[in-house]
Amino acid sequence: MINLEQLIDKAFDYRGDVTLDLKSGQHIEGYIFNRDHAKQTLTLFIKGESTPKPLAYTEITDIRFTGENTAAGKSWEDWKTKHGKE
Q: Residue 54 phi/psi, 5° resolution?
């Protein structure tokens, strides 16, 4: 079974929006761009907002991968071809 820190790492590496289910019953959709295991916090841009929001791990009950992973199927070779590099 995957623990919360491992799930947060997967969400951090995911290049798309995720939905965080919180203990309060609230659901937040956004992009996780920072996490700090030592402080047990992450920071995300909430969809439709411009100010990042810090969030404690203890507030999170689940993370769902709900947005498109914008890096899916992309590779260094694809980038070189697109940009005319050899």
A: -80, 150
pTM of the model: 0.77
For domain 4-82, which architecture applies? Roll (2.30)
| Segment 12-68, tens digit of pLDDT | 998 889 999 999 999 999 999 999 999 999 999 999 999 999 999 999 999 999 987
Judge contact between 35 and 43, C-beta under 8 A. yes
Q: Which of 3, 13, 8, 23 is nearest to 64 (CA)?
A: 8
Q: How far is CA 65 from CA 39, 68, 77, 83, in A?
A: 23, 8, 26, 30
